[in-house]
Amino acid sequence: MTSKSMRSFAGGLIVAASLCGAIYFFSPGEATVTSEQPSDDEMKESLTSKGYVIHSEKEWEDQIAEAQSVKEQMDAARETEKEPTEKIVYRTVLTVSKGSTSIDVGKNLQKAKVIKDANAFSKEVEKKGKANGLRPGTYEVDSEMTTEKIISIIFK
Predict the structure, then answer these.
(1) How many CB atoms are located within 10 Å of the residue 76 CB?
(2) 51 to each of 41, 44, 59, 129, how far by Cα in Å?
(3) Which domains occur in the chain, in start order?
(4) Distance in angstroms (rounded) separating the CA atoms of residues 104 and 82
(5) In this structure, are residues 110 and 88 in contact, taking their beta carbons and an 8 Å threshold?
């Protein structure tokens, strides 16, 4: 591109920008678009014909209050439900063989649902210092026994 054509191009840009600015600043105010707003009744009719449900503010608040009272009644009904009076007791015959560990015993007791956590049982045995005192044999234990009672039966 030559310098003359470059000047001509730049001049064209200046003229175009000037024309756009002049039109923007000297044109009359914003164009006003008038649209007719439908009345409240017309809006309600239009919405209900499309399947919407229209509530006043008071109707809406009444429905919310009613829903909350129903929820509170259901919560109260759940609280008053009685717990079952029967308690399930799990019993098992545990066979401890030579070479078993407290972890093995804990896993077997957990499988039989006599204790809840085998690791906690094993840690309790170690805490009492009876991990090496496991006595091989057959023992009858149940879920009503305390962990201490089970340990005293199975361990020396």
Answers:
(1) 9
(2) 15, 11, 18, 74
(3) 91-154 (3.30.1490.480)
(4) 38
(5) no
Is pLDDT above 80 for 13? yes
Report residue 18 CA to chain centroid gap: 60
Q: Which helix (H) or strand (E) holds 153?
A: helix 147-154
What do you get for the CA distance between the two ends of the chain, in Å? 103
Residues in the chain: 156
**Tokens in use for 47?**
């919405």
Question: Which of 59, 145, 79 is CA-nearest to residue 109?
Answer: 145
Instruction: Tell me how far apart the alpha carbons of residues 119 and 107 are, in angstroms, rounded to a whole number.
Output: 8
Q: Write out the two tokens for 34.
A: 């008038």
- Residue pLDDT, tens place only, 84-135: 667 888 888 888 888 888 888 889 999 998 899 989 988 998 898 888 888 8
What is the C-alpha separation between 80 and 111, in angstroms, rounded? 33
